[in-house]
Specification:
The chain has 136 residues and is mainly alpha-helical. It has two domains: 58 residues, no CATH class; 69 residues, no CATH class. The protein contains three helices and four strands. Strands 1-2 form a two-stranded antiparallel sheet. Strands 3-4 form a two-stranded parallel sheet. The longest helix is centred in the middle third of the chain and has 21 residues. The N terminus is likely disordered.
Length: 136
């Protein structure tokens, strides 16, 4: 349960009778939503998880962040995810083990190579716009 900006985790707890928001699922997405609601000042946010927090598909994720996507929206999500991981330890006091090691994309056909190049250019443009260098 998230209460006024703090997170309280209790197993088998009784659910409150009222809530400002109820988040279904205690994986990375659900916990992130609850955290951000509380950080923005919403009190009474409840996370409902059928097992233990982070025990579903979140616990099975290998983790990798890339920025080569076909849309700017996807690229911007990835760039923000990188920033979250870079400041994670300062904000939460836990080292997530994040390391920038890069990606290798292999294309077997020329049209696939062209799509990779286009996605890479789009990612570079999004990075520049995000940094305030509106490259055209």
């Amino acid at each position: 349960m998230v209460v006024a900006g703090t997170i309280e985790l209790r197993a088998n707890m009784d659910l409150p009778k009222t809530a400002s928001a109820v988040v279904i699922g205690g994986g990375v997405v659900g916990c992130s939503i609850a955290y951000n609601l509380a950080r923005r000042g919403l009190a009474g946010v409840v996370v409902v998880e059928r097992e233990t927090v982070g025990s579903g598909t979140t616990s099975k994720a290998a983790g990798g962040i890339r920025v080569q996507f076909p849309t700017e929206t996807e690229i911007r999500f990835s760039l923000e995810a990188i920033r979250v991981f870079e400041r994670f330890q300062d904000e939460f006091g836990v080292d997530p083990g994040y390391k920038k090691i890069g990606y290798l994309f292999l294309a077997l056909r020329s049209h696939a190579a062209q799509r990779i190049r286009e996605a890479d250019r789009a990612a570079d443009q999004a990075r520049r716009r995000r940094a305030g260098h509106h490259a055209r």
